[in-house]
Write a structure and sequence with these properties.
With 260 residues, this protein is of the alpha/beta class. The chain has a single domain, classed as Rossmann fold. It has a 7-stranded parallel sheet with strand order 3-2-1-4-5-6-7, with helices on both faces. It is globular and about 50 Å long.
């Protein structure tokens, strides 16, 4: 009897089985969507939070209903860069490896020019630039051992300054250059890329009126806001299917940057 090949199937095993991803600011919003997406692809997750322990615990319970003992919580202030080597020691103790670092945590609020304080400058730079840089530096030995990757959440306002948010915009511009600089420093063993979201979720810290929303949406070529899932899918592509891409920032904005 001749042997026949098994039927072709589009279903493949999870792409990230046995891999570990550290996601900063992962308890809510885009960070949580990224955690769900990478976890569904097979990765074990180190879920970082700062103040949102209750939400982080709830997300861990949700993910571990699908796969037991697959999530570690890591509470930390990313403004304390001296603590990073110790944090990475905890990450290594979790599974003995690190494959993906997602620098997602970010402070965002207005700082109108003429009213900016030292504290605001330091806070926005700590979460959007200094913290991601020094966390990447601390994580590099683990990532080098696995030929891993770093993904930064940048912003379209790294290139197009956001009115009344000069400090945030400046910090994100530095974050964008960090993607390129670290890609050069860490290649060939570690890939470094970024994602620049447009209008994905309305800010929690600021009230946006319906007329303001309509005006902003009218500037988007696709005519609608995106979703956290749009960012998570782009990130999954960079992690799993972009072995020859480094130093690049993918803009996920529905065409917002096509218009003034």
């Amino acid at each position: 009897m001749s042997q026949t090949s098994p039927p072709f199937s589009y279903i493949s095993p999870p792409a990230l089985d046995g891999r570990v991803a550290l996601i900063t600011g992962a308890a809510h919003r885009i960070g949580a969507a990224i955690a769900r997406t990478l976890h569904a692809a097979g990765a074990d997750i180190v879920l970082h939070y700062r103040r949102s322990e209750e939400a982080a615990q709830a997300l861990r319970r949700e993910l571990e209903r699908a796969r037991a003992d697959s999530v570690m919580l890591l509470g930390a202030d990313l403004g304390d860069c001296q603590a990073f080597p110790g944090l990475l020691a905890h990450v290594q103790a979790f599974r003995g490896r690190l494959d993906v670092l997602v620098n997602n945590a970010s402070s965002f609020y207005p700082t109108p020019f003429g009213q900016v304080s030292d504290e605001q400058w330091d806070d926005l730079f700590a979460s959007n630039l200094k913290g991601p840089f020094f966390l990447a530096q601390a994580a590099a030995p683990l990532l080098r051992a696995t030929s891993g990757c770093i993904i930064n959440l940048v912003d379209i306002h790294a290139e197009r300054p956001h009115k009344d948010h000069p400090v945030y915009s400046i910090a994100k511009a530095g974050n964008a250059m960090m993607v390129k600089a670290l890609a050069r420093e860490l290649g060939p063993s570690i890939r470094v890329n970024g994602i620049a979201p447009g209008i994905i979720l309305w800010p929690e810290s600021q009230e946006v009126s319906q007329s303001q929303k309509a005006d902003l949406l009218g500037r988007i070529a696709l005519g609608r806001a995106g979703s956290a899932a749009d960012i998570a899918r782009a990130l999954l592509f960079l992690v799993c299917e972009a072995d020859y891409i480094t130093g690049q920032i993918i803009t996920v904005d529905g065409g917002r940057t096509l218009q003034q």
